[in-house]
Amino acid sequence: MLNLTLLRTLVVVIGISLFTLLAVQFYWLNNAIRLEQLNFVSLANNAISDITKRMEGQEALDALYRAAARTEMRNSDKLKDVVMTPGLPSGNLANDQMPGMRETPMGTSRLNQLNLSVMSQASGSTDTGTAFLEQLLGDKNLASNRNLMVEFVKEIQSSRQRSIGDRINLTDLDSVIRQVLETYGITSPYKYELVKADNAFFKKIAQENKQASAQQVFFGKLFPSDLVPTHSYLVLRFVNQQPYFFRNIARQLVLSLLAIILLGLSFFMLVTLLFRQKRLSELKTDFINNMTHELKTPIATINLASEALFDSRISESPATMVRYNRIIYDENQRLKDHVDRILNIALLEKSGFTLRYHQLDLHALLDKVIDQSELRINQQHATLTIRKEANRTTLMADEMHLINVFTNLIDNALKYTRQQPEITLRTSNTRIGVSVFVSDNGIGMSPGQIKKVFDKFYRVPTGDVHDVKGFGLGLAYVKTIIELHGGYIQVVSEPGKGSTFEVYLPFEQNKLN
Predict the structure, then answer these.
(1) Which of 96, 235, 433, 462 counts the highest number of beta carbons within 10 A?
(2) Structural domains of the chain, with CATH
(3) Which SS3 state, helix, strand or coil, does residue 327 take?
(4) pLDDT given at position 244
């Protein structure tokens, strides 16, 4: 038998282990979300920096277009082939017409060489416009084209004197934001705006991020290369970042939740099984002890009565011999009943067990049960009333096992009472079967006892009364037999008010309730 202290210790250890694993899982998930948040912040900051640099590079390229147009360095088609770099929005000037340009071999060659150099150095980077501008200003051959450089500088200065609203084309900005965020894999919904920043602006953003418990507002300075700061910023607000975070850890999250659920179910099933095994072990121990006592008592009584019959004085008294023979017979019958109950339960547990069905009349079967129980009924001065209210009582059933069923129910009604037993058998019909009600005036049962009364080895406690004999197998056997017949058994009872067992049996086995 499982030791209760050991069992409790085992449950506590397993519980601590389980909750430790759950804590580790939640800690890991929390860290995973936190890392995703940090990664998102890093990506968003890089993205907004990239966006502002692209817009600045775009402005420089637009200025170069206009300067080239004025100096008539070359026609617009070749200029577009040279200056336009992959991944950079073209701007409005990409489609401008630049008539009257003349091709300058030196300028065209240098612009082509410079473009190839920029694309080589800026591969993998999105800041191609700024890189082009830096290369352009540092190139000696192109810088020697005084007219181009003068016009270019004029265009740059002219651009920087305009307002932010004039310097940035919102259509281009929207396109750049979408492209850059897509490049960085950011798919969270966003809103953007252009603002003139001051200290109150930065405090407001800090407060907004604090209230959200995560950074969701990002800003980048526009045209950071201006000699005179514009104090203008591009602000990106990400409306809902949670789907982005959970999508990135969806697989880990699902696996973790599955592991947690499986661990919880396993723990619950293990604990339930352990306590069930402990209870079953205790019941079996009680059953063995009780069975030993129940079998030894009639054997000892038979032994004493048999020894007494060897006494010559008893043989001279016929009445005394009859009394001792009656004792031997009764105790032998009692011993047989005990063995039959044990063998019946063992028989039911065999996989090959089957009932032997044949047509019988239930009222006639109940008459046989009453005849067999008459001796025990008379010994306890019990009153047995039978009310045959069913009109149709012919059904397919196993006679021997049904007799055992109702005999068990009557025996329980006789045993579990503190007064003169009063038992009532009543039959009634349903549409497809017949019910037998066995009522008594016994000690009754509580709702908790009713739930266990059909369990194997369970015996209803009788308080201070310890003369109730049995193994706790009778009702388990009854329930099994009735269910094998396609019926059911249920009980209504209250402590101190007796019990009523209802046995329902269908007329035919293919019409189950």
Answers:
(1) 433
(2) 4-247 (no CATH), 250-347 (1.10.287.130), 354-506 (3.30.565.10)
(3) helix
(4) 67
